[in-house]
Write a structure and sequence with these properties.
The complex is a heterodimer of chains A (187) and B (296). Chain A is an all-alpha fold and 187 residues long. Helix content of chain A is 79%, strand content 0%. In chain B, strands 1-2-4-3 form a four-stranded mixed beta sheet, with helices on both faces. The relative contact order of chain B is 0.14. Classes of the chains: A mainly alpha (187), B mainly alpha (296).
């Protein structure tokens, strides 16, 4: 009789440990996703923080390019508005829009040799292109985190625990084809 | 590369590091025992306790200062955030891609393209790159090299390699101490009975063999790890050609790097150029690393 009791207790403890273990695993992976999402925000914010400096640096040289300047400023405003939100898709869209606007600005800057000679401008250009890399890597890590989480949600026995804790698989970020291309080396 | 294999590798590394520490204690005790029996069985406990205390202190001090020791031994300096901007960007990128905390960044003198990582866990990670690597690698290649070192940190290879280096060092020191002490001890212990001679022979054999065996195991293990770290780097950069090109540049490179033997296995590639793939090589042949990467 007493033996049965001991075996029963051991089995219950084991089951509890496994359940706790899986619950914690889900939590850890979910936290990783949240953290990697915050990392994207950090980079987007850095990008938008550099834009005023860039506008300042460029203003004197590109007096006749009001359209693109306005476009960049607007894109920055739009991005700043969506950064605090939880809406992934619109955040990514705003980030890409600013990146696109900056790209056309840099393309136009090619026509201004004086601007191209400015140390300050070159520095900002380098920093912004470095941030572009970082956004791409932050997205990649976000997707890696989602992958880890989804693997747990969709394999057995994780699947059963996911149902038990009502955890749902996460959604991947779509990575724009342009940002995956290797940028040509320019330094 | 499947994700699970990395987790397996991490678990294995942590476990192996632990076993190694146990092994170093056993070796110390055995050596201490044999030595004390060979010299003077009366002082057995005294010698044992001394051996244990010395090895404990040695292991703890080296373990917690391994990063500083390694950096100092190659004369590395902290990277300058303005002058080494591209290196900082490469390390930041890899830290974002891997989700690891940002390691400390160092630059060491030397025209050879090389790099190493140290630090006992990801929170204390250090990545150190040679000036040659900074001057001769482009952005993708530098990221690949940094990614390789970051993978070593993430996989706990550093902890493992550091522990092995400590074990090798400890055993070498003890063996040397014993072998040297024979010169002084032989006069006194002569005529002390035949039992001692057997212990003497065992002790001498152990003292000579142990460092060699441990060294071979160390090299075999560290060669295997390089493939894992190459794969880990590609997982971070998603760009195998970066790694392949970096390795090709290293292959064409005929520079040598003068570093102490103890830290050589920690580097990205061999610090000296050897022709043959042999037992004493710290890294797998570059051709083999390239061919594995090109299949990915």
């Amino acid at each position: 009789m007493i033996w049965w009791l001991i075996v029963l207790i051991i089995v219950i403890v084991l089951i509890l440990l496994i359940v706790f273990g899986y619950y914690n695993r889900f939590t850890v992976l979910q936290n990783r996703i949240n953290n990697s999402f915050a990392q994207i925000d950090v980079q987007l914010r850095k990008r938008s923080d550099l834009v005023p400096n860039l506008v300042q640096a460029v203003k004197g040289y590109m007096k006749h390019e009001q359209k693109i300047m306005k476009e960049v400023t607007e894109a920055r405003k739009a991005l700043l508005k969506v950064i605090p939100s939880k809406d992934v898709a619109s955040k990514m869209k705003a980030g890409d829009a600013l990146q696109g606007a900056l790209k056309s600005l840099f393309a136009i800057a090619e026509n201004y040799p004086n601007l191209k000679a400015s140390e300050n401008f070159l520095h900002l250009q380098r920093e912004l292109s470095a941030i572009e890399d970082k956004v791409a890597y932050a997205r990649q890590f976000y997707n890696d985190s989602i992958l880890g989480y989804n693997n747990l949600c969709k394999t057995i026995p994780g699947r059963w625990f996911a149902a038990m804790f009502s955890k749902k698989a996460g959604k991947y970020l779509e990575i724009p084809a342009a940002s995956r291309a290797v940028p040509k080396i320019s330094f | 590369m499947k994700k699970i294999s990395f987790h397996d590798q991490i678990a294995r590394n942590k476990r192996n590091s632990f076993f190694l520490v146990i092994i170093v204690f056993i070796v110390m005790i055995v050596l201490g025992y044999v030595i004390s029996m060979a010299f003077s069985p009366d002082y057995f406990f005294f010698i044992m306790i001394l051996a244990i205390i010395i090895s404990l202190v040695y292991v703890l001090i080296t373990y917690y200062n391994s990063d500083k020791i390694a950096l100092a031994s190659v004369k590395a300096k902290k990277a300058d955030s303005v002058r080494h901007r591209s290196l900082y960007h490469a390390v930041e990128n890899m830290s974002i891609a891997s989700g690891m905390p940002m390691p400390k960044v160092y630059v060491m003198p030397g025209s050879q393209i090389n790099a190493f990582a140290t630090g006992r866990d990801p929170k204390h990670g250090v990545v150190c790159v040679t000036e040659g690597a900074l001057n001769r690698l482009n952005k993708q290649e530098l990221e690949a090299v940094v990614g390789h070192e970051m993978s070593h940190i993430a996989n706990y290879d550093i902890r493992f390699i550091t522990t092995i280096a400590i074990v090798v060092g400890a055993i070498a020191i003890f063996s040397q101490l014993f072998l040297r002490s024979l010169w002084f001890g032989s006069g006194r212990s002569r005529g002390r009975g035949q039992g001692n001679i057997i212990f003497f022979l065992i002790a001498i054999a152990l003292a000579i063999l142990a460092p060699i065996i441990v060294k071979l195991v160390q090299l075999a293990i560290s060669r295997k790890r390089e493939f894992m770290a190459d794969a880990g780097s590609v997982k971070l950069t998603r760009y195998p050609p970066g790694m392949v090109n970096a390795l090709k540049k290293i292959k064409a490179d005929h520079e040598q790097l003068k570093v102490p033997d103890a830290v050589a296995p920690m580097f990205f590639s061999d610090t000296t150029k050897r022709r043959m793939a042999n037992l004493f090589q710290t890294h797998p042949p570059i051709e083999k690393r390239i061919s594995v990467l090109e299949r990915m």
